[in-house]
Automatic annotation (TrEMBL):
Part of the 50S ribosomal subunit. GO terms for cellular component: ribosome. The keyword Transcription regulation does not apply. It comes from Streptomyces goshikiensis. Keywords: Ribonucleoprotein, Ribosomal protein, RNA-binding, rRNA-binding. Residues 2-29 form the KOW domain. This is Large ribosomal subunit protein uL24. HAMAP family: Ribosomal_uL24_B. Pfam families: KOW (PF00467), ribosomal_L24 (PF17136). The lineage of its organism: Bacteria, Bacillati, Actinomycetota, Actinomycetes, Kitasatosporales. One of the proteins that surrounds the polypeptide exit tunnel on the outside of the subunit. One of two assembly initiator proteins, it binds directly to the 5'-end of the 23S rRNA, where it nucleates assembly of the 50S subunit. The keyword Ribonucleoprotein applies. Belongs to the universal ribosomal protein uL24 family.
Length: 107
């Protein structure tokens, strides 16, 4: 997967189109990413007992995963943030390096 944890991404389609956020978690087996402040849903939790004490129930707003095809990586070029596709190249030691297609710079 070309998007990794900690990357700044922009949503390119869906209800949150245009929003930018940091990737909290990448789930490569499902091709999904969890983006900060994007795809927020209300989750109803039941009051229960935990090891540390009681847990209050209620409605909690959390981020839900979105498909990786709906986000694009954001890189900075000349002080401006631009969205770009991600490519790969190999250095002299044979290490795989991510490259921003629009700017040509290493990520």
């Amino acid at each position: 997967m070309k998007i990794k944890k900690g990357d700044l991404v922009q949503v390119i389609t869906g209800k949150d189109k245009g929003k930018q956020g940091k990737v909290i978690m990448a789930i490569p087996t499902e091709n999904r990413v969890l983006v900060e402040g994007v795809n927020r849903v209300k989750k109803h939790t039941k009051a229960g007992q935990t090891a540390g004490g009681s847990q209050a129930g209620g409605i909690v707003i959390v981020e839900a995963p979105i498909h990786v095809s709906n986000v694009q990586l954001v890189v900075e070029k000349d002080g401006q943030k631009v969205v770009t596709r991600v490519g790969f190249r190999f250095d002299d030691e044979g290490n795989k390096i991510r490259v921003a297609k629009r700017t040509g710079e290493d990520i």
